[in-house]
Amino acid sequence: VVIATRDGKLYAAGDVNYKFSIQSVSKPFTAALVMQQQGPEAVAEKIGVEPTGLPFNSKIAIELYEERSTNPSVNAGAIAAVSLVQASSEQDRWDQVLQNLNDFAGSDLELLEDVYESEYSTAWSNRGIANVLYNYGRLYSDPEEALRVYTRQCSVGVSAVDLAIMGATLANEGVNPITNKRVMDARHVPELLAVMAMTGFYDESGAWQYSAGLPAKTGVGGGIVTVVPGKFAIVAFSPRLNESGNSIRAMKAIRYIAGELGVGLYGANPD
After folding, report:
1. What share of the chain is helix, strand, coil (3-state, %, to 5)?
2. CA 92, CA 128: separation in Å to the nearest integer?
3. Which of 44, 131, 3 is CA-nearest to residue 79?
4. In whole angstroms, what separates CA 151 from the centre of its chain?
5. Residue 150 class from Cβ within 10 Å (0-12 exposed, 13-18 middle, 19+ buried)?
6. Residue 192 CB coordination number (10 Å)
7. CA-CA distances (angstroms) from residue 152 to 7, 8, 13, 147, 258?
8. Measured distance CA(226)–CA(215) in Å, rounded
9. What residues form DSSP beta bridges with 16?
10. What SS3 class is residue 228?
11. Which pLDDT tens digit goes with each residue over 185-228?
12. How far out from the chain centre does Cα 22 lie?
């Protein structure tokens, strides 16, 4: 567990330097890159911002909703976000995605090659999603290129400290509190946090807002980043997941800490 404040202070407990795959926790940060390049309107218009109420890898959602990709937190929307990065080649697209993650983390993150090879070799579901989006005109690059870069993005190794600094950058209105580099315009941060609040826990997003009241993003790697706007980020990592793909212990730990500190956006729960 790590708390990173907007001025760079760290409060940590446990094995906080262990590297694990970032997985879907990467999704809002690539959405941030698209916002920087094209504005929040591009995310709303070309991907969507509505929650689906369905699992993160749902193909049914693509058919049910006119936006098709629905939001940047589910696989369809995240693959679409990768395809929206303004790039001259696949290598350029990947370099931009990785550099953006590095800028948020304030350190040089590395691709976990074994994770990437395993996930890309079995990416039949996501390949289907990419091709269906392309068929509907809701993917903006070659489908296989977007799939490869997206899979690399999810296979980047991070520690709880890395994620906490990434979250603290959002808490600090887009400025990394360690490097002091502006990674995201302050005016775009509220839209990104709104998407995280509505969709960051997949089909448990409503329950998370009901009990914790904070924007967050989970990943099947076991990490969760939660942002207290203007103050700090709370990150926890624990591998065991529930049926929705969210870390059981990390979720409970962050909810407990947020409750003890009374930092929920909708008011502190006295219980």
Report:
1. 50, 10, 35
2. 24
3. 131
4. 13
5. buried
6. 22
7. 31, 28, 29, 9, 32
8. 6
9. none
10. strand
11. 999 999 999 999 999 998 899 999 999 999 999 999 999 999 99
12. 9
State the CB neighbour count (10 A cutoff) for residue 5. Answer: 17
Look at the block and give the residue holding tokens 């953006």: 100
Q: In the structure encoding, which two tokens stand for residue 84, read together?
A: 């929206």
Phi, psi of 56 (to 5 degrees): -65, -25
Cα separation, 83 vs 117, in Å, equals 20
Tokens of 60: 């049914």
Q: Both tokens of residue 202?
A: 């997949």
Spatial separation of the C-alpha atoms in residues 227 and 204, rounded to whole Å:
17
Structure tokens belonging to residue 103? 């800028």
Residue count of the chain: 271
Q: Are strands 216-218 and 232-237 parallel, antiparallel or unpaired?
A: unpaired
- Asked whether 138 and 8 are in contact (CB, 8 A), the reply is no
Structural contact between residues 90 and 79, judged by C-beta atoms closer than 8 angstroms: no
**Assigned token pair, 136:** 């509907």
The mean per-residue pLDDT over the stretch 65-84 comes to: 88
Per-residue pLDDT, averaged over 8-23, amounts to 98
Can you give the pLDDT at residue 70?
85
Q: Are 109 and 165 in contact (CB under 8 A)?
A: no
pLDDT of 267: 79
Of residues 269 and 39, more confidence is placed in: 39
Strand pairing report for 223-228 and 232-237? antiparallel
Whose tokens are 């993650």? That residue is: 101
Question: What pLDDT is stored for residue 53 in this prediction?
Answer: 67
